[in-house]
TrEMBL record:
Entry keywords, A to Z: Transferase
Organism listed in the record: Oryza glumipatula
UniProt-listed Enzyme Commission number(s): 2.8.2.-
Enzyme category, top tier: transferase
Name of the protein in its database record: Sulfotransferase
C-alpha cells in the first residue's frame, strides 16, 4: 500500500441519498488532493461526488449486450475517441460528409454520454436507458468499478491510454483552468 494511503483519514461518506434507494454509508479514507478532497473508493482515489456517482452506477446501471463502452483516463483523448466512435457507429444514418452531421453542431460529450457523469445522483440513469441500441457510452471508471453485468453480457470495451507523463501535464493545465475559471475545459 502506498504511503499516502496509510496517511489518509477515515470518514463516513454517503454513497447516495434515499431518493436513489441506496442510503448505505461507506467508511472510506480521505485525503486532501491537488484541488479538492479525495476519497479512496474500491481502491481508486476520486472526488466525493464521483464516488457517489460510481456507487449509483454500480447499483443501478443496466448494461445491454450490444453496448460499446469507451474507457479513458481524463485527458487521454476522450473527446477524440467519442467523436470517432460516434461517427463509426452512426455512419449509416449520418454519413461523414453530410453537411448536417451531428458532430458539426454538438459536442461528442453530448452525443456519447458518460455512464457516471454528469453526476448520476443529479441526473438519473433513466436517461441512459432511453438511448436506442446499440449505445455508445463513455466512462472514466476503471474496469473493476463497472457493474459486473458489463462483463457477463459481453459488452464491448474500447480502452484508450496515453503516456502517463503527458496525461499529468494535460490534467494539471486542465485543473488550473477549471480552478481559475478561464479558458476552455475540453
Amino acid at each position: 500500500m502506498a504511503q499516502g494511503q496509510l496517511d489518509a483519514q477515515s470518514v463516513v461518506v454517503p454513497t447516495a441519498t434515499g431518493d436513489e434507494g441506496d442510503d448505505i454509508l461507506v467508511s472510506v479514507p480521505t485525503r486532501e488532493g491537488w484541488w479538492t478532497t479525495f476519497v479512496l473508493y474500491h481502491g481508486c482515489w476520486m472526488t466525493r461526488q464521483t464516488a457517489r456517482s460510481v456507487s449509483l452506477v454500480r447499483a443501478q446501471f443496466a448494461p445491454r449486450d450490444d453496448d460499446v463502452v469507451l474507457a479513458t483516463y481524463p485527458k487521454c483523448g476522450t473527446t477524440w475517441l467519442k467523436a470517432l466512435a460516434f461517427a463509426i457507429a452512426n455512419r449509416s444514418s449520418h454519413p461523414v460528409a453530410a453537411g448536417d452531421h451531428p458532430l458539426l453542431t454538438q459536442s461528442p460529450h453530448d452525443l456519447v454520454p458518460f455512464i457516471e457523469m454528469p453526476f448520476r445522483h443529479i441526473h438519473p440513469l433513466a436517461a441512459l436507458d432511453a438511448l436506442p441500441s446499440p449505445r455508445v457510452l463513455g466512462t472514466h471508471m476503471q474496469h473493476h468499478l463497472l457493474p459486473p453485468r458489463v462483463d457477463e453480457l459481453g459488452c464491448r470495451i474500447v480502452y484508450l491510454c496515453r503516456e502517463p507523463k503527458d496525461v499529468i501535464v494535460s490534467l494539471w493545465h486542465f485543473i488550473n483552468k477549471v480552478k481559475s475559471g478561464t479558458g476552455k475545459t475540453t
